[in-house]
Structure prediction request, 280 residues.
Amino acid sequence: MSAGLTDEVLASFASTPDERLRTILERVVVHLHELVREVEPTVAEWEAAIGFLTDVGAQCDDTRQEFILLSDVLGVSSLVETLNGSPEGTESTVLGPFHMTASPARVLGDSIDDVGGGRRALVTGRVLDPSGRAVPGAEIDVWQCTEDGSYDVQQPDLQPAGNGRGLFHADDDGRFRFRTVVPGHYPIPTDGPVGALLGATRRHPYRPAHVHLLVSAPGFETLTTHLFVKGSPYLEQDAVFAVKSDLIVDFVEVDADAEGLDRPYRHADVDVVLVRTDVG
Prediction:
């Protein structure tokens, strides 16, 4: 009876014009039905599952995306990024739930720290193609938490909108630079259904310190990546399974003055490699 039901549902998608959509729906139904047969949930358990997903949706708003958070803590976001990555370019990783507001346009060398943090830092780098040639004018969207581990959208009464965020464009040599603070490690939001799930499974909610980069340019695949701070707690136990060893960056202490930065400060320098889409 149950196998016949699965076949009946699959047959209902036979006329779907979009072949990719039909394939995805068929595989979702097959695996979901197999899961139900394996676990044999009670009606009450299935209703609880639907209630959980309903609560996840209700928690989403203009500044918070609980479904992304759920995808993150289940490792799905990281898996999708890994499957879509390329060995030619910088490794990709999760977008996270806090890229929900537009980053303010800033000029190269500007500070994204609008609240005057203590652990000052300079981030520099180049955007390159796989052959090492510069990608001039590449767009670099940056966002991070404070050194105390909070994003602007989490503290609207304490942080100005756009703190820790900046939209930059690389120069003609593909170079970019901005001033900031060394971010802190932090817990993902635990006041919603995803937090309740972590509590029920005795999992910690912490992420290691990192800076987000979303890098794009015409003719290239858009890259979502992190700069993980070397030595940060939770590099081996990231709550969203996003750490990759090649993305761990040393924020080196520098005992010299720089533009807008008195000594000492921390300096991180990285190459960001984008993969072309216009080859062939």
